[in-house]
UniProtKB/TrEMBL annotation:
Belongs to the BamD family. It comes from Rhodobium orientis. This is Outer membrane protein assembly factor BamD. It comes from the Bacteria. The lineage of its organism: Bacteria, Pseudomonadati, Pseudomonadota, Alphaproteobacteria, Hyphomicrobiales. Part of the Bam complex.
Length: 289
C-alpha cells in the first residue's frame, strides 16, 4: 500500500512567460485555495489517531456488540497504519466483525486478504474459515442456483487441506458434508424433473453425477433406484440390473432397493451386476462394493 503524502509535498510552482503580475497573483490564490481544500479532505480522512487507539476502539465496539462500527475502526487501522504491528491484528478482526454483522462480502475480502498477506500464520486458518462461513451462510434453497454452495465447499476444503490440525478443521469437515449433500440434492431435483418428462438420457446424466461425485450423501440410494428406472425405461436392461444390484449390495434394507427390485421382477428380470458397467466401477473405486 502506498503511503499517502500531504498534497503540498507534491506541489511545485512554475513561472510562465508573459503572464501579468496581477494574473499571477490570482492564479496563486486559486492554487492555494485548492491545496488548502485538498489538505482539509486528507486531514478529515486521516485524522492522525494512533494505530493502538484505533484498534482498541474497535475492540471496545466489538465487546459492546457494535460489530459494524467496530469493522470500520479496524479498516481504518489497516488503511491509515498499514505498517504498524496493529495492522495484521486489525485485518483478522475486520473479517470477524464484518462476518458477525452480516457483511459477508466484506468479510470474504478481509479474510482473503489476510490469507494472502500472511499465508503461514496460524490465524490464517481462522481467516479461511470465516470465508467458508460467509459463503455457507448464503447457501440458498436447493431449488435455486448453487454457486454459493460450491464456493462454501471449496473454502472449507481449503481449511481442511491447509490446516488439518486446526481447531476449525472438524467443523469445516462437517460443513463439507452438508454442502456436498446440498449439491447432490440439486442434481437429484433436476434429474427428477427430466425423469418426469421422460427425458431419460438427461435424467441419467444428473443421477450419474450423484453416483460418481456424491456417493457418501443421503441421496445415493435414490440415485441408484432412479438409474434403474431410467435405464429400464430406455431398454438398457443390463445397466438397470447393475444399478439395482449395486443398490441391493450396499443398501439391502433400503426402500429404494425394494422399488428397484420390484420394477425388474415385473419385467421378468432380477438385479445382476455387470462389472464392466460405469456404475460398478464407480463404486469399486470407493471401496463400497
Amino acid at each position: 500500500m502506498e503511503t499517502t503524502r500531504h498534497p503540498r509535498h507534491r506541489t511545485t510552482c512554475s513561472r510562465k512567460v508573459g503572464v501579468r503580475p496581477a494574473a499571477r497573483a490570482t492564479v496563486a490564490l486559486v492554487a492555494a485555495a485548492l491545496i488548502a481544500g485538498a489538505c482539509s479532505t486528507k486531514e478529515e480522512e486521516f485524522d492522525g489517531t494512533p494505530a493502538d487507539q484505533l484498534y482498541n476502539q474497535g475492540l471496545a465496539l466489538t465487546n459492546s456488540g457494535k460489530f459494524s462500527k467496530a469493522a470500520q475502526q479496524f479498516d481504518k487501522v489497516e488503511k491509515e497504519h498499514p505498517y504498524s504491528r496493529y495492522s495484521q491484528k486489525a485485518l483478522i478482526m475486520a473479517a470477524y466483525t464484518n462476518y458477525t454483522s452480516g457483511k459477508f462480502d466484506d468479510a470474504i475480502i478481509a479474510g482473503r486478504r489476510y490469507a494472502t498477506l500472511h499465508p503461514t500464520d496460524p490465524d490464517t486458518a481462522y481467516a479461511l474459515y470465516i470465508i467458508g462461513q460467509s459463503y455457507f451462510k448464503q447457501i440458498p434453497d436447493v431449488t435455486r442456483d448453487q454457486k454459493m454452495t460450491e464456493k462454501a465447499l471449496a473454502a472449507m476444503q481449503e481449511v481442511v487441506t491447509r490446516f488439518p490440525e486446526s481447531e476449525y478443521a472438524d467443523d469445516a469437515n462437517r460443513k463439507i458434508n452438508i454442502t456436498r449433500d446440498q449439491l447432490a440434492g440439486k442434481e437429484m431435483e433436476v434429474g427428477r424433473y427430466y425423469l418426469e418428462r421422460r427425458n431419460y438420457v438427461a435424467a441419467i446424466n444428473r443421477f450419474r453425477v450423484v453416483v460418481t461425485k456424491y456417493q457418501t450423501t443421503r441421496h445415493i440410494e435414490e440415485a441408484l433406484a432412479r438409474l434403474t428406472e431410467s435405464y429400464y425405461s430406455l431398454g438398457v436392461v443390463s445397466e438397470a440390473q447393475t444399478a439395482a444390484a449395486v443398490l441391493g449390495h450396499n443398501f439391502p434394507d433400503s426402500e429404494w432397493y425394494k422399488d428397484a427390485y420390484t420394477l425388474l421382477r415385473e419385467g421378468g428380470y432380477k438385479p445382476d451386476e455387470d462389472k464392466a458397467s460405469w456404475i460398478s466401477k464407480a463404486f469399486s473405486r470407493t471401496g463400497l462394493i
